[in-house]
Amino acid sequence: MVAAHNLKHALFCAVITLVISWPIMGLKLEAVGTQITLQGADPFTWIAIGVAALAVFLFQLFREAILGRLGMLKSLNPMADRKPMPQEKRLKLESIGLTLLIVLALIWPFFVSRGSVDLATLVLIYIMLALGLNVVVGLAGLLDLGYVAFYAVGAYTFALLSQYWGISFWMALPIGALLAALFGLVLGFPVLRLRGDYLAIVTLGFGEIIRILLNNWTNVTGGPNGIGGIPDPTLFGMEFGRRVKEEGNVSFHETFGIAYSGEHKVIFLYLIALVLAVFTGLVIRRLMRMPVGRAWEALREDEIAARSLGLSRTGVKLSAFTIGAFFAGFAGTVFASKQGFISPESFVFLESAIILAIVVLGGMGSQMGVILAAIAVTILPELAREFSEYRMLIFGAAMVLMMVWRPQGLLPMRRRQIKLSTGE
Amino acid sequence: MLEVQNLSMRFGGLLAVDQVSLDVQEHEIVSIIGPNGAGKTTVFNCMSGFYKPSGGKILFRGQEIQGKPDYRISRLGLVRTFQHVRLFGRMTVVENLMVAQHRHLNTNLLSGLVATPNYRAREQKALDRASYWLERVGLMEMANREAGNLAYGQQRRLEIARCMVTEPQLLMLDEPAAGLNPAETRDLDQLIISLKEDYNVSVVLIEHDMSLVMGISDRINVISQGRPLASGTPDEIRNNDDVIKAYLGEA
Predict the structure, then answer these.
(1) Residues A45 and A121 in one domain
(2) A66 and A106 assigned to the same domain
(3) Which of B29, B32, B15, B53 is nearest to B230 (CA)?
(4) B76 and chain A in contact, CB less than 8 A
(5) How big is the A-B interface in CB pairs under 8 Å?
(6) Domain range for A18
(7) Between the CA of residue B37 and those of B15, B33, B202, what are the distances in Å?
(8) Which Gene3D superfamilies does the protein's record reference (chain B) (predicted)?
């Protein structure tokens, strides 16, 4: 009976594999002169498709046995049944590790290539975004699929402010974050009553509205052409360009009497992003342990019980939305400054999905996990660049495997143990 | 202190609660009993603000509270438990008790971020109150366990502790003995009496366990099919013919 069911299932999977891969890989459109003709692929591709279907068939047929074997691998892991460290020791190790990591991150850019520093800045931006979304999704349990909208608000705030009023990065940073927070608040109100799937759909819509608005409000945002010439941040009025753009400013390399180098600017931006990411992490870590953080989690765990204990749903949910959006605004401002040019292209749904994937992969609510996942998710596609068009496929496969083996995320959230004084 | 006057609750064509009245004095344990589906929990839901009653009044210390949002009613000191335990399962036991004290804490974001003395003092006070109640209900060793991993009886006790740290004036317990073994029920019995005697809390109780109800109630209200059937002291109820017919069974 089980075997028959297995066989049926395996056959079905193999047929699906064939049905999907045959038109995608087996058929090719070739332009012959002005005509387009449909041609079959070379025999090698056909064989490959057949082998793939067979592999799927065999795997599904012996699925239990294979997965059972994989389960046995766990016992090979010497760390498997090690007792967890006592909290104090772990915290000490963690804080030493983190300090070392930050110090390393501070000096590292001076020894590597410009490209790596640039990529690292992007990683830091994603860390900020993921930490912010972690508040909304991981802690408050509100599935937000339009998070990128707040990122866009931050980026466009800086771009527009600098274009129309010549406002600098340092002024725009708090303004962008606050404006994004305001948008979070505004979105928060109508969606308060919604939960789960409904909330996801509304936030998804909100994300698209912002993107489409940016795309179509051509005379303000430049539409699909985007906004260019966004200024770099300055260091106490020192510019990092070869020539000073603004009256009254001096240039960094002249002040210090060193040769001009394009790398200064990249490293400076990286350091700004690093400081902001550390700031984001510390603030949210603190928030998690404050009454508001506990209230987020309580509302996620059981809304009715939370309300019966006097928590106001409105206040708690809005605070999560607002704080999450605030940090997305931060990230957006840094992003705009890093790119120097932004367009609605950068704020598509895929971005929201990637940030959400980072949070889920890292482990909902876990800051260390989210940071690790942000690094992995940003760097992996870059490393896999030589696989060209297959790199997103590899990325997707890696995510599926992750979720099968470690659905709780890379580093699941650990609860803080609180010492209580016993007796009076 | 609490007075329910002619409370009615209608769901579409169904009149779940019809003209129910009851009152609770200071320092009193009042029970609501009745067959399954009689509308006891609906009365609770109206009292705690989960439902807006279709008719009638609910007065708490002379103030009308019917139709107020649930969290406001809870802040007035009217706190309830649930028929099915509703803990914050993935949070630890202490955290459950800390959440409950939200309104006693300094929730200002800035003072929390920089940990002002006032913030820390209030946080410490809340922790002390939490450990006091953990000791009281015998859950001290479990303080840092996730609440969802506790045994059922422990979860029940934690839920009561969680209500008590909010410093309520009136506690509404919805079938607190459901699923407990006889020994646990006896402990619960002691706990509820002690809440009244030592902490000056009035209790409204919905319960099916008759020995518990008869043993600790000062007065009992019987509801049947949404309508009030009888009310009085345990002795009066025990000997009331209508009640015997409708609920206790003719024996």
Answers:
(1) no
(2) no
(3) B32
(4) no
(5) 116
(6) 2-75
(7) 12, 11, 25
(8) P-loop containing nucleotide triphosphate hydrolases
Query: Do residues A268 and A316 both lie within one domain?
Result: yes
* Residues in Cβ contact with B28 at an 8 Å cutoff, skipping those fewer than 6 apart: B196, B202, B203, B218, B219
H or E stretch at A36: strand A35-40
> What tokens appear for A235 in the block?
């260091």
Classify residue A61: in a domain, yes or no.
yes
ipTM of the complex: 0.88
Architecture of domain B2-87+168-248: 3-Layer(aba) Sandwich (3.40)
Chain B: residue whose CA lies nearest to A312: B71
pTM of the entire structure?
0.81
Q: In angstroms, what CA-CA distances link B50 with B41, B46, B148?
A: 11, 6, 24
Nearest chain A CA: its distance from B90 CA (Å): 7
The alpha-carbon gap from B71 to the nearest alpha carbon of chain A, in Å, equals: 4
Identify residue B232 by its one-letter amino acid code: G
> Helices marked H in A238-343 — which ranges?
252-255, 262-288, 291-301, 303-308, 313-339
Buried b (16+ CB within 10 A) or exposed e, B33-62: bbeeebbbbbbbbbbbbbbebbebebebee
Identify the domain boundary among A11, A40, A75.
A75
**CATH number of the domain enclosing A253:** 1.10.3470
One domain for residues A63 and A99: no
The nearest CA of chain A is from the CA of B138 a distance in Å of 12
- Between the alpha carbon of residue B127 and those of residues A249, B161, B231, the distances in Å are 54, 13, 41
Distance between start and end Cα atoms, chain B: 37
Tell me which residue in A287, A301, A307 faces B88 most closely, judged by beta carbons: A301
Q: Rounded to an integer, what distance in angstroms lies between the CA atom of residue A107 and that of residue A368? A: 21
Report the C-alpha gap between A293 and A286 in whole angstroms: 8
pLDDT tens digits in sequence order for chain B, 251 residues long: 888 888 889 888 888 888 888 889 988 999 998 888 888 888 888 988 888 888 888 988 888 888 888 888 998 889 999 988 899 988 999 999 999 888 887 777 888 888 888 888 888 888 889 999 999 888 888 888 889 889 988 999 999 999 999 989 999 999 888 888 889 898 888 999 998 888 889 999 998 888 888 888 999 998 888 888 888 888 888 888 888 877 666 54
Using beta carbons and an 8 Å cutoff, which residues of A are at the interface with B?
Answer: 283, 286-287, 290-292, 294-295, 297-298, 301-302, 304-313, 319, 415, 417-418, 420-424
Do the beta carbons of residue B78 and residue B170 sit within 8 Å? yes
Query: From CA A372, how far away is CA A357, in angstroms rounded?
Result: 12
Closest CB to A309 among B100, B107, B143: B100
